[in-house]
Model the fold of this input.
Amino acid sequence: MSIPTIPTTVPATSERPTTQAWTCVLLDLDGTLIDSAPGIIERLGRTLASLGLPAQPESEMMRWVGPPLLDSFRDFAGLNEADSWAALERYRSLAGQEDASQLTSVYPGIPEFLRRLNAAGIPLALATSKPESQAERILDHFGLRDTLTVLCGASEDETRSAKADVVAEALVRLRARGVDTEAPIMVGDRHHDIDGARANGIPTYLVSWGYAVPGEEEGALEVFDSAEVLADRLIAEYRNPDTQATL
Done:
């Protein structure tokens, strides 16, 4: 699958703000931790075919990866609300019948990235528009769930599916665990992550290995093309409350 990549726009050290100090990190899932596009597109194709809808080229289907699927059925397939719900239920049925690893893989370096942040004591929250039950199943399958302080996804009834709402709920759950949410940072791969984080007053670091197209990086603090370099930065900028208390 050929996926256009966004240009890397990491400023030189002298150009970066020196006052950044994050208290927790929110993470997108699809396109950030896992490469799920092949599976999503394959299931979408079967869903459209089962409903008698015309097939769409792969390049067009990439638009569906990231936003809530209920919205995508409306926006990209032209379905009304009732038909969009029927399509979503069909898609979820197909996803539920498959192994969690079906046409899905973890990006290289991500397990190490998460373990390093864990070792540094950084609270991590998953904030994904994928249904929470699906996200749990995938992370359990790949052995990554235990790296997260909280896991937050879309609700089954889609009342919480917009990225801004998912991010807001992730912050609520972090605070319930006693995490300082004064200065969170979002890590994602698409403009939906930037927009959803911004709606909650949160800046975003973007990764270049996901599904964004050129131009989506606008509004991100920086773009990273290495999980190792991103981990280095987040660890260096982490505001450890235990360390702060002793200063």
